[in-house]
Amino acid sequence: MINSDLQALITTLEMAALTTVILLIIGTPLAWYLAKMTSRFKVIIEAVVALPLVLPPTVLGFYLLIAFSPEHLPGQLWQQTTGQQLAFSFSAIVIGSVLYSLPFVVQPLQKAFEQLGDSLLEAGALLGAGPIDRFFSIVLPLTKASFITAASLGFAHTVGEFGVILMIGGNIPGETRVLSIALFDHVEAFDYARAHLLAISLLIGSMVLLAAIYWLNLPKRPQDKARMEQKESLTYE
Amino acid sequence: MINSDLQALITTLEMAALTTVILLIIGTPLAWYLAKMTSRFKVIIEAVVALPLVLPPTVLGFYLLIAFSPEHLPGQLWQQTTGQQLAFSFSAIVIGSVLYSLPFVVQPLQKAFEQLGDSLLEAGALLGAGPIDRFFSIVLPLTKASFITAASLGFAHTVGEFGVILMIGGNIPGETRVLSIALFDHVEAFDYARAHLLAISLLIGSMVLLAAIYWLNLPKRPQDKARMEQKESLTYE
Amino acid sequence: SKAQQLSKGNSKPLRIAVAANFTPVLKILLKDFSKNTGIKTQVISGASGAMFLQIKHGAPYDVFLSADSRRPKELEQADYILKNSRKTYARGQLALYSSSHSMHASEPLSLDLLSSPPARFAIANPDIAPYGKAAKEVLTHLGLWKNYQSRLIKGINIGQTFAQIRSKGVTLGIVSNSQLVLNNLPGVIIPNNYHQPIKQQLVIIRASKNKAAAKKLSQFLLSAKSQATIVSYGYAQTNKAKS
Amino acid sequence: MSSTLHNHAALSEVSIDSPSQLDIKINVNYRQFTLTIQLPIPLKGITGIFGHSASGKSTLLRAIAGLEQTLEGEITLADKKLVDTKQGLYLKPEQRQVGLVFQNSRLFDHLSVLANLEYAVKRCKNNKLSLDEIIKLTELTALLDHRVTELSGGQQQRAALARAILAEPKLLLLDEPLSALDQHSKAQLLKMMLTIQKKLNLPMLYVSHSLDELQQVCDTLIVMSKGKVIDSGNIHQVIHRLNSYGDADIMHQQTSLSLPIKQFDNGHGLTTLALNAKQDIFLLANEDFEQQTLLRCFILASDISISLTEASDSSIVNHICGTIKQISHQRNNVLVTVHCNSQDFFVMISAFSLQKLSLTIKQQVYLQFKAGAVRTFIH
Amino acid sequence: MSSTLHNHAALSEVSIDSPSQLDIKINVNYRQFTLTIQLPIPLKGITGIFGHSASGKSTLLRAIAGLEQTLEGEITLADKKLVDTKQGLYLKPEQRQVGLVFQNSRLFDHLSVLANLEYAVKRCKNNKLSLDEIIKLTELTALLDHRVTELSGGQQQRAALARAILAEPKLLLLDEPLSALDQHSKAQLLKMMLTIQKKLNLPMLYVSHSLDELQQVCDTLIVMSKGKVIDSGNIHQVIHRLNSYGDADIMHQQTSLSLPIKQFDNGHGLTTLALNAKQDIFLLANEDFEQQTLLRCFILASDISISLTEASDSSIVNHICGTIKQISHQRNNVLVTVHCNSQDFFVMISAFSLQKLSLTIKQQVYLQFKAGAVRTFIH
Ligand SMILES: Nc1ncnc2c1ncn2[C@@H]1O[C@H](COP(=O)(O)OP(=O)(O)OP(=O)(O)O)[C@@H](O)[C@H]1O
Ligand SMILES: Nc1ncnc2c1ncn2[C@@H]1O[C@H](COP(=O)(O)OP(=O)(O)OP(=O)(O)O)[C@@H](O)[C@H]1O
Ligand SMILES: [Mg+2]
Ligand SMILES: [Mg+2]
User: Fold this and answer.
1) Contact C126, C135 (CB under 8 A)
2) Pairing relation of β-strands C63-65 and D318-330?
3) Domains present along chain D, CATH in parentheses
4) Residue D138 scores a pLDDT above 80
5) Under an 8 A CB cutoff, do B33 and A236 touch?
6) By alpha-carbon position, which residue is closest to atom 18 of ligand 1?
7) A193: which residues sit within 8 A by CB, 6+ positions away?
8) Which of A59, D26, E68, E233 is spaced 20 to 30 A from E30 at the CA atom?
């Protein structure tokens, strides 16, 4: 039994990690594009990206399930390409999570890019740095904190996701049964002791993980700290 | 029948609006504090704020339900103060939503505040602006986009919220029955026609709302636009 | 004072918490009930498990129609219900449902299909849903459980299982017969003796301020006419014997 | 205007122990730099701060403004304690009524030029200045609805200066506020600063790398080096002491003077200044002089030549008689200090000329310099 | 070094139609400002850009660098088209190999000083310069591991300059790169820029408000006003034309010269420059002159006096004979142009002296100026 929770944990971590990586890969250029574009389509794209927020996850899951089934185009294409059924597979819950968590990654990054301003990018370009180079040497370090926020929001939201994954994943142990579902099952099955235990482990685990992430993001050099403390006393009452 | 969906819509809007207002009121100082503090407790507070992300909503709802019931301290205090039971009330779903959506408001604001830098705040202080004044005259306009992001993430996430509200609200029409639950009910009741209709209305409504919000946030003056287009062509490939 | 209670009941509708799978049938029945008694009702549909928890934490429901008998029993033991109010109002009937099988297919759908297990097979979660538990018993009875165990798509409740099959993400599974009847879909009824009966029980909540109306509803649902309606919507015959 | 200048010159001489002063006793420590200042600064007129790059000028201003929280010590502004770290007193910048024009202008990006100025006006308590007038003086009229990111470097500095002045602080700190401006705009704005200084009786601390600028507007000069004050006091005296440091790299050696105007126009387009009872100095008349009684001017040491007799057929109009007080060799140059009644003049000649004229101490000589060599930068 | 100066001076004279030039034909339109430039700029040595604040200097540099996308027209850099809006050609800034030192330094906040410099080195293709050497020349050694926010204004400018040079572009644009520096650092860095200019054969466009600076390092000067080029060409010629605009506000009128060194030390600490076959000019010797054959210097018009006879008992060492070519009145001043063989000298005297000496055109006079009046700012 405890074994099955462990399996769910592993599935969860795999799913969340993969989802986060995909989210960053997709979300970064999307956020950049949204931050820099000014056409009137911008608002429409922004709204579409934000949509998963508004739909209840089970409903989103229902529509995704329809789309993923072999009867419909996305599911069909997947099956033709990979030879595997998409619905109720590990891939399905990853894709579902990506769609569901996309706004959590795109929006913080977009705002960070918007706030960044041009002057340092111009300076970089004049030192011969092309757009990709500028991204990694200037944008990324300057918006590191927002990337960490985006990644941790995306990761955490995926770990906590339940409705979508349950609908399109089908609770298959070792493949699509994740921690949040296991936890729900324990509660529903009156197994409160295990539910509490799992919830507390999840809480502590996540806290440690989040704290570690945020700690990594703290300034490191002592004088940085001194400066930040200065800052604080000026700007915070 | 359609009437009941309308009622759910009204409840949803009331809840989401109230929640968003409360989130901004609580979230702004919290985000400011987190952005400016450097003590090692920072990471712990950050992790606590981020926790609602990690717990599956139904599980969070389960624990909130226990806390809000008249048998436990928070519920007891509430009942003593207001004379009303907390669990299954409109107040309960607002409180639940606030807790659940807090990270979506705090994190974007915090990053925006961190990226803001000190130099303009120093300039403001030397023109005689106190901390509150500086906040409204400098910080707020410069981070307006992030406030809009925070508010729309908070609002949308509250509209889409399901698990927590279902658990602590109890799906009582006119009081705690919100759109997401109504939609779920339609799916559960095999009333797919109505589910689709409601989902599509929700989608279109949210898109219009989100688009309106983002549109408000676009630069207005023509020369701003010109500058931004310039920007784009430099920085975006 | 009874009249007073009644009139009070009229101003505040009777709140009925009902397991989602029974909601459509209940709504049909309630039309008659309200016409006959003038009692206004409010239907709150949801998962039995969640409602059970909510009742334990003070949910303002008057009647609870569970999808199982276990939760009503627990509520009874914990003294949350009106004494002797626990009644079986319906018995679940399982059916094999295939969403890929056309209604006009030459070969009719039959339980024989089960002997060659498909890659994926949907049932409700046996650990938490009564229909799931019964579905597991059916497979065990047929000696197929071991074969199926690794192929199962487990829904959170029978509603989700039905949705999963209907969306054709998975094409075969065991659902509630009433779902097929309500949606006018073909399926194969699974004999009731393949599993323990799925007793769906109702209870009247002790904290209810509307007990008189609640009792009336209980009586109404257990009446022969209502029971016949329930059966016509795909539930099994109730033995005259009480739970 | 003349009276202002007069007052300042007069007051700055006695202000060292007047009560209205800025008292600084502070320490600021950075990794590789320590600022240690113990100095009373008179709150009269404009006080210049001069020094090499990285000598700590900006750090000093930031400390006074309340932006250096790491400092230790005391700062008292006109009897009001701003900081006393021993007693745990630390006034916030917004409570100090100290204005600061930063080295980089720090305008608010999100506001137009006008809104930037109004930001200051709204938070100003007395409003003695008229917004329109300052806008006109800083030549910002055409730019009011521009975003600040659209301004040229010089325009940004003018807007920042206008904004700081409009806040009407009790003390205005200026960190190279005119570095991005051309000669002409610089002169205009310095004039404006003098007018406003007088109008509001607003003391200013003015950091600049240009001694010319400082000489023209400051009453007191503070010279900093490596985080310390190495000289301070009356501007003319400090400049004359700087002459002898022999470091021609940091400044042009010069004679710095404030002299009463005796006659605005001698009929030949020259203004006459009274050097002393017997001797006059002539310079090119400028209509701005008309309203003044005292003129601040300087004569570069390299602009003065020494002659043993009084030449008559040259275009040179100033011929002053004096005795050599000191001769100091600096590379191939010689700095000769010539005493004319009570005033020292500094003359830079080549070692070659020294030899040729065989000048010695106590010898009587004629100083010659052109009317154009008596420089005023702003009037 | 001497040969550099010599070459530049020589080449800049003929470079107008040499193929290696920067060809600019552009229009940039803002709401209240239009930049219209049609100009070939020789890619030799350092070209100065001089003009009032807001005359469009920064806009021109930004256009060349590729940061003004709203521009129309063509820019060709040494036969390579950078922009041709008619043909839809627009090279990105990073493809132009053009460096720019911004008016505000724009260092990368997230990197240390060293990492800022390395940023440029990593992206540089030829690496002819040694990082260590540039660090030493810009005196950044002690600051390498500082964050750029900890630097003083002058330190930031030095770091920005070092970074831009280390990128070794094909053309370096400098927008008031030394405005926050003191006299001494300024001279040091200008010297460095000349050395590097020669070493890399790297042409530079140099924007400054200080004509002194420009006179010392530029071969060609461009004068801008209100978005247009109002004069351009050989630096000495442009400066002499500027003298006659009569706008003493923008500059000190002066005679600008590049003269061969005849004798480094005449035995009396004076260096002799050959003005022409018959006449010499003396100035104070400086050890830096020793390595040079040609010296760039200027003499302020106010530093020269006119005498009808050659004085002998004065400390003044330069006495040049010439004839008056032009007399122009400017307020109470008179600008007298005196022709001495092939060289014009500009002399500012008072109207009073003009009258007293009753000077007329074609009259023969003696110009007198001190050795110290022959100014070199960097050597
Ligand atoms: N926050 C800081 N941390 C470390 N060192 C600092 C910090 N701020 C300033 N310094 C150092 O203190 C010294 C003085 O700096 P300051 O800015 O006061 O110089 P400045 O006199 O204004 O020079 P400039 O004329 O170049 O602006 C410099 O060496 C600088 O590197
Ligand atoms: N993006 C812009 N939008 C509108 N006007 C602009 C913009 N950029 C510059 N200008 C205007 O163009 C003119 C020239 O600006 P520019 O920065 O080129 O001047 P400059 O010669 O560099 O001046 P300074 O010496 O003060 O830096 C100014 O009047 C400025 O307000
Ligand atoms: Mg400074
Ligand atoms: Mg400029």
Assistant:
1) yes
2) unpaired
3) 2-242 (3.40.50.300), 254-373 (2.40.50.100)
4) yes
5) yes
6) D56
7) none
8) E233
- Does B146 touch chain A if contact means CB atoms closer than 8 Å? yes
Q: What is the pLDDT of residue B232?
A: 37
Inter-CA distances, C232 with C25, D97, D294, E155, Å:
10, 86, 114, 89
Residue E38 is classified by DSSP as E
Chain A residue numbers with beta carbons less than 8 Å from the beta carbon of D70 are 226, 230
- pTM, entire model: 0.83
Place of tokens 């300057």: A142
CA-closest residue to ligand 1 atom 19: D54
Percent of chain E scored above 90 by pLDDT? 40
Please classify residue E75 by burial: count the beta carbons closer than 10 Å to its beta carbon, then call 0-12 exposed, 13-18 middle and 19+ buried. Answer: buried
Q: How many CB pairs under 8 A join A and D?
A: 11
Phi, psi of C214 (to 5 degrees): -60, -45
ipTM: 0.81
Chains C and E touch (3+ CB pairs under 8 A): no
Residue C214, pLDDT score: 93
Residue of D nearest to E352 (CA): D268
Chain D: give the shortest CA distance to residue B122, in Å: 7
Helix, strand or coil, per DSSP, at residue A212: helix
Return the exposure string of D25-40: e unless at least 16 CB atoms fall within 10 Å of the residue's CB, then b.
bbbbebeebebebeeb
Higher-pLDDT residue of E229, B57:
E229
What is the C-alpha to C-alpha distance for residues C149 and C84, in angstroms, rounded to an integer? Answer: 39
Return the ligand 2 atom nearest residue E175 CA. Answer: 22
The structure tokens listed for E270 are 């004076």
Residue D57, ligand 1, Cβ within 6 A = yes
CA D177 vs CA B120, C47, D189, D235: distances in Å: 17, 71, 10, 20
Chain B residues within an 8 Å CB radius of A199: 55, 59, 63
- The amino acid sitting at E25 is K
Cα–Cα distance measured from residue D184 to residue D189, given in angstroms and rounded to the nearest whole number: 9
What chain A holds in terms of domains, given with CATH numbers, is 3-235 (1.10.3720.10)
Rg (CA), chain E: 22
Q: Which residue has the tokens 């996701």?
A: A161
Q: Do D93 and A234 touch (CB under 8 A)?
A: yes
pLDDT tens for D51-73 read 988 999 999 999 999 998 889 99
Contact C122, C161 (CB under 8 A): yes
What percentage of chain A exceeds 70 in pLDDT? 90
Q: Is the pLDDT of residue A55 over 80?
A: no
List helix spans (H) across A117-188. 119-126, 131-134, 140-142, 144-160, 163-169, 179-188
Q: Which ligand is nearest to the CA of E51?
A: 2
Interface contact A226-D92, CB threshold 8 A: no
Query: What is the distance, to the nearest Å, from the Cα of residue B108 to the centroid of all Cα atoms in its chain?
Result: 11
Question: Is residue D286 within 8 Å of D271, Cβ to Cβ?
Answer: yes
Amino acid at A117: G
The residues near D322 (Cβ < 8 Å, ≥ 6 apart) are D338, D339, D340, D341, D345, D364, D365, D367
For every residue of E291-308, DSSP letters joined together read: G-SEEEEEEEGGG-EEES
Q: Cβ neighbours of residue C12 under 8 Å, at least 6 residues apart?
A: C209, C210
Q: Tokens 């022959």 label which residue?
A: E374
Tell whether A228 lies on the interface with D, counting CB pairs under 8 A. Answer: no
- Residue that the structure tokens 């209980």 belong to: C218
Residue C47 pLDDT level (bands cut at 50, 70, 90): confident
Strands D374-375 and C14-19, sheet pairing: unpaired
Single-letter amino acid code for the residue at E52: H
Distances (CA, A) of D87 to A4, D8, D283, E261: 63, 35, 55, 66
